[in-house]
Structure formats: structure tokens, C-alpha cells
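sorry for the late reply, my laptop died twice this morning and i had to redo everyting from scratch. anyway the thing you sent over, i finally got around to it. pasting the sequence first so we're on the same page, its 119 residues, then the predicted structure underneath. double check i copied it right bc i was rushing
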Amino acid sequence: MKASDQVVRIFTMPVQLPCGPQASCCGPIGQTEEQIQSLRNKIEESVGVKTEVRNVMKGEDMKNFREIIALIRSLGPMALPVIAVGDEVVSVGNPEPAEAAELIKEKLQQGVLTSQGGK
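ok and here's the structure:
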């Protein structure tokens, strides 16, 4: 399968302020629209793949991704965004867009090599 045929899924959560906007005990969790769009643009431009954003707070977005749900339950919201190529997680946490693109490129190259019998 060519890299351009792959779909990269970005599992995210909109920014939330669990203790309220004026609280000093904790900061926001989740990602802004701008952060996700920047990540998405970098991946699509640098890697040449389609991206799909999934909101982990929406059940209909997550019904086919039980492994991702389990990962987030284990690690908590700081694990977001989770980036997956096919069924494989390539990034957990908040990477710089260029770093995420490189991780995806590496994973896709491994997949091409594997599908060609290790050549």
C-alpha cells in the first residue's frame, strides 16, 4: 500500500478547563482548533497522506477504536493527541507538528519495507 493511500487518525479532545477559567490549580487540557489544524496541515503537506480527526468525547467518533479508548483511560487526557497510522499508534502526547510528521514517515517506511518482504 502506498503512503498516499494511508489514513492518519488524530484522536483529540477540545480544550477544557476542568477547574474553571480562573482556577490556579490546573491548566487547560485538550487541544485548540488551531493546534490540531497546524498538526493536520504539517502531516498532510510533509507526508502526503489524508488525515482524519476524531473527537474522543464523542461516542460515535470512537465506537471502532476500543484500543485508543483503553490507552486514554490508562494514561489520561495528557496522552492526547494520539496519532495512529492504520491500527498502530505512532505518537502519544503533544508532539511538535514536524516531529509528528517524521514519526509517521518512519512508520510508513517500515510498513512499505514489511509489505515488500523486508527489502
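Strands lie at 7-12, 50-55, 82-85, 88-92.
thats about all i looked at so far, will dig more tmrw
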